[in-house]
Amino acid sequence: MEKEPITLEGINKIKKELAEIKSVKRPKIIEAIAEARAHGDLKENAEYHAAKEEQAKIEGRVIEINDLIARANIIDVTSLDRKDTVIFGSTVSLIDLENNKKKTYKIVGKDEADIKKKFIYFR
């Protein structure tokens, strides 16, 4: 099992998502399935099939999160000695030479990467 680097912030976010799935989303989907079953014939019950599909997605995400937690190599980026080297957890600024605009990115693990938040994965 290959360890994946993740920030402390990232692992906390993942654990929070897992807790929400277990305490909020799972009970809601179980309730939706029970309600759809009560409507009768399951073969042609679109609500039932939609709820079961959503349940499969949720359970798949639980498996992904548990796998990530098991493989996590949590790195406290505040304790890293950075100097002049770009490493995991670094915040880097780049200048687009065509328009002279500055862009700032944070180097994170692949499971945290999100270009909209300017978190990039660099291996």
Structural summary, described in words:
The protein is α/β, with parallel strands linked by helices. It folds into two domains: 4-75, Transcription elongation factor, GreA/GreB, N-terminal domain (Helix Hairpins), CATH 1.10.287; 77-121, Transcription elongation factor, GreA/GreB, C-terminal domain (Chitinase A, domain 3, Roll). The protein contains two helices and five strands, in the order βααββββ. The protein has a three-stranded mixed β-sheet, with no helix packed on it. A two-stranded parallel sheet has the order 1-2. The model has no long low-confidence stretch (mean pLDDT 88).
Briefly, what is this?
The strands form two sheets. A three-stranded mixed beta sheet has the order 3-4-5, with no helix packed on it. The model has no long low-confidence stretch (mean pLDDT 88).
